[in-house]
Amino acid sequence: MGWSSVQQRRLQAERKILSRFFPSFEWISPNDNNNTKVEGNVPTNLGNNYTLRIYVPSDFPNSRPDMVVTSPHPLRGFLGQDLIHYGATSKMHTLKPRDGFVKICHHKDWQPNLTLYLVILKGRIWLEALEAHKRSGKYIADFLCEMQ
Amino acid sequence: MSTTFVYMLEEQVQAAYESFRTFQNNFLPGIACGFDGGDVFHVYTSAPKVHIAGYPCHSAIQFLIRMPDTEESLAIVTKICKTKFGNNPKPVVIVLLAAEEKRLEHRVFIHISGQFREGSLKFIPEQSELYSRSKGLLETSILENCRVGIVGLGSGGSTVALELAKAGVGNFVLIDFDRMELANISRHICGIGDLGRYKTKAVRDLLYARNPYIKVKTAEININTNLEKTNSLLKDCDLIIAATDNDRSRFNLNQIALQYRITTIFGRAITRAAGGDVLRVRPYQGPCLACIFTNDFLKSRPDEISQFRQARSQNPDYVSEEEVKATIQVGLSCDILPISNMIVKLALVELSRGCEASGLVSLAEDLVADFYIWANRRELSYANYLKMGYGSKTPSILRWYGARYDRDLTCFVCGDQSQSFLLEDNIFAG
Question: In 10 A of CB B103, how many CB atoms?
Answer without folding.
Answer: 9
